[in-house]
Amino acid sequence: MRVGAENRKELYAAIVLGIAAVLGVTYWVKSSPTTSATSGTIAVAVTTNQRPPRLAPKTAVNPDTIDPSLRLDVLRAIERIEYSGKGRDIFRETVDIPKPVVPVVTQPSGPLPPQCPGDPRCPPPPINLKFYGFASKPGEPKRIFLQENGDIFIAGEGDVVDRRYKVVHIGVNSVEIQDLLNNNTQTIPLQQG
């Protein structure tokens, strides 16, 4: 079995693309600037937080004309620049958050109204279940239909409905429901229709 003999068109396309990629990288490497004077000017402009000067169009640079000496005047000018910043310490990981001002609240005079929940003076919240029928057959334990906000539940004595209400006792015309969250028991009458 020969490798690549199945799809010759794909093999030729891969070779052409590989050659084009090698030529593109070679052109990009040869055309990149290699002068140190240009990169030095950009480095000075970045460290002084100023806009870099406009560079002249690329021209051929003769290596014999480049001055390799240090420019001490430029170095001294860079040393005199102080960091002013924007008020944030760049050497700290967290930022200090100002403490919120707490408003002063005065206590009203006189008796306080009952505050629910947990206040024994408050009435327990009503149980929103509606008892509207039986679901058991003769000879089976009693089961009823309960409805809350469009949801229908079938429950027997001792069952927990909607993870909150426990069916305590099923009567002929009413049912006793215990609210497990508020620990109160209410009797719900049979709804006709």
Describe, in plain words, how this protein is organized in 3D:
The chain is an alpha+beta fold and 193 residues long. Among the domains are: 7-55 and 68-84, no CATH class; 130-189, no CATH class. It has three helices and seven strands, in the order αααβββββββ. The chain has helices at residues 8-31, 36-47, 72-79; strands at residues 130-134, 143-148, 151-156, 160-161, 165-170, 174-179, 184-189. The strands form two sheets. A four-stranded antiparallel β-sheet has the order 4-5-6-7, with no helix packed on it. It has a three-stranded antiparallel β-sheet with strand order 1-2-3, with no helix packed on it. Strand 4 (160-161) and strand 5 (165-170) form a beta hairpin. It is elongated. The two termini are 82 Å apart. Residues 35-46 have low confidence and may be disordered.
Question: How would you briefly describe this protein structure?
Answer:
With 193 residues, the protein is α+β, with helices and mostly antiparallel strands.
Give the topology.
Layout: H1 8-31, H2 36-47, H3 72-79, E1 130-134, E2 143-148, E3 151-156, E4 160-161, E5 165-170, E6 174-179, E7 184-189
Antiparallel strand pairs: 1-2, 2-3, 4-5, 5-6, 6-7
